[in-house]
Design goal:
The complex is a heterodimer of chains A (444) and B (248). Chain A has 444 residues and is α+β, with helices and mostly antiparallel strands. Chain A folds into 2 domains: 115 residues, 2-Layer Sandwich (Uridine Diphospho-n-acetylenolpyruvylglucosamine Reductase, domain 3), CATH 3.30.465.10; 229 residues, Vanillyl-alcohol Oxidase, Chain A, domain 3. Chain A is built from 14 helices and 20 strands. In chain A, the strands form 4 sheets. Chain A has an 8-stranded antiparallel sheet. In chain A, strands 5, 6, 7, 8, 9 and 10 form a 6-stranded antiparallel sheet that branches. A 4-stranded mixed sheet of chain A has the order 1-2-4-3, with no helix packed on it. The longest helix of chain A is centred in the middle third of the chain and has 18 residues. The radius of gyration of chain A is 21 Å and the shape is globular. By secondary structure, chain B is of the alpha/beta class. Chain B is built from 9 helices and 9 strands. Chain B starts with 5 loop residues before the first strand and ends in a 5-residue tail after the last helix. The model of chain B has no long low-confidence stretch (mean pLDDT 94). The chains are: A alpha+beta (444), B alpha/beta (248). Chains A and B meet through strand 5 and strand 6 of A and helix 2 of B.
Amino acid sequence: MSEFTGWGNYPILATEQLGPRAPASVPDLVRSRSGLIARGQGRAYGDAAIGMASTLSSCGLNRMRSFDATTGELTVEAGVTIADILTTMIPRGFFLKVVPGTKFVSVGGAIAADIHGKNHHRDGGFGDHVYSLRLVLPDGETVSCSPSDNAELFAATIGGMGLTGVIVEATLRLLPIETGWLKQTTHVATNLDAAIATLADTASATYSVAWIDCLARGNALGRSLIYVADHASTADRNRLGPTQPTFPEARRGGVSVPSIFPGFALNPLSVRAFNEVYFRRGVARAGAAELVDWDPYFFPLDAIANWNRIYGRRGFLQHQCVIPAHSARAVLADILERVSRRGTASFLAVLKQLGDSHGLMSFPVRGYTLAMDFPITDTLFDFLDELDALVVAAGGRLYLAKDARQSRATFEAGYSGLGAFRDLRSRIGANERLVSHLSARLGI
Amino acid sequence: MTAQKTVLVIGGSSDIGHATALRYAQAGWHVALAARDIVAAQRNADDIKARTGVEVTLHPLDVLQTDKLADFAASLPVLPDTVISVIGELGDQTRAESDLAHACQIMRTNFEAPSLLLGLFAQAFQARGSGTIVGVSSVAGDRGRGSNYVYGAAKSGFSQFLSGMRNRMALAGEVRVITVKPGFVRTRMTAHLKLPAPLTVMPERVGADIFHSAEENGREVIYVGRRFWLVMTIICLIPERIFKRLKL
């Protein structure tokens, strides 16, 4: 038995650990177990990648299978990470069509959570750029699926949290890039209305994301910095950074948070001070376009290894909801108002636009997603239930890859594809066989 | 620009073999993988090609069939510029204490086969007047320990073979011989073991260090990770009357 936890360090649960060294050994492991779930790099925040009885690590499935540099079509085993793909393919002039906020996730995990990036409103989710995948079903049979082949299984697997089978291989379409740089403009929004308006105004840019100062109140509620960017062309690079290399390398090293970082170091005062400094620095650089290296642009927090430890031993919860566009303004204001009033230190609050998605259980719906981190305290769970009620009333939902505590009622109200998903799970014999702590908790 | 160089990696289905071959491919070398498990070697070859665009050739080889080694070396389309042996088998020490066939296999896989094969290439390299030979041995060969001395003794023999060959070649001219002694490496061979994190390296580290030693004029006897040099120096300095009582 090994102990597992998600990125939030909550909950901690013991299961059997399986570590296949090649895709060929996966079917026998799946066939001979029940209560199994696949796990990638353990970056889901809660209990999504912890099996009820067995947890199958994809770390050994780390080989690339083929790459066609004319079409940009890349086939990889499911344990290959986003970091591995980027460091390998950026020097060859290719980027992934969708990347999450950390590069330390596996391709299998990215498909299972149908992760979104700062371009979801424009380019869809990770699953929208998966050409096909190979899946080991609960009975050990390996099948290929794609939007045209086993389409129902494919749609259920995109965003299906590993509950339809173990993904062993995927073929992705990469994005050709001229440089490894982003052309970024910072906008300042003095309140939530301005933030939403700026996100809407800049929707034609490839990437946009708003960082919200959660502790701002009153007229400044929702004050934000909005980072808008496109991939820099060779001409952009020549104009803004003529001495820079075409393809900057991934950052090396970085700092690490010690395992004994005291939870009390992060308090409303220290966070307020940090947010103030951060906001002023953003204001100072707002306006002009600047060249930003891909690694710090997409993955700023990756520079601090184990930043999750900053929340101390009890761990933290991330609350990430999406609110459909029509009711977003009022509901987001209500949520921010409550967070601000509670005064809890939320180090990170991120607001993004989302578009439609195509996975049966994919998180995104057209609207706005707000993500906030909270250190675990005795009162936090009740507080988040309060926020959930607002989300449910607005027709929104919570992101399963971040979840460790939502109620079944919240989940069932949010995910309209659940009935069809449960039905498919029954048909492929997944009910007893593929079970994570998340799926058991939510009755999937 | 000189003609593309070729590296032959013996043990191309292993994790260290894969990482080493990939490092060479990234530097633009043509890669030849020799392995018994051709399916696993193909998986590594595909990976290297996908990552680098470099062509990789596969060469079936069972190193324990020592009477076929000369034919194998003669059958290669080109004599490689560098040949690297990463073959090895940890085996089961307890079983090897009473199962002579198992002990024999550990000794042959870790000492006899790689020594004979690299010896063949030494002859060919000497005749050509150039070449680099890399043998991946182990820190386990530095001093026999109760927990794995069958493996350790075989690796020790291999280390000594490489040492002698290096001495001979240094007097004869342009052929270099490199001895690589990895400590704990996270691979398929060690997947079932609990390894101490501060002393454990990934296969990529071994590949990078081999490339540096062999092709960038690094040292000819290296420990990977480097901390093992100190660990093994201390282990070798412990007096036998104390050492024999330690549980190592």
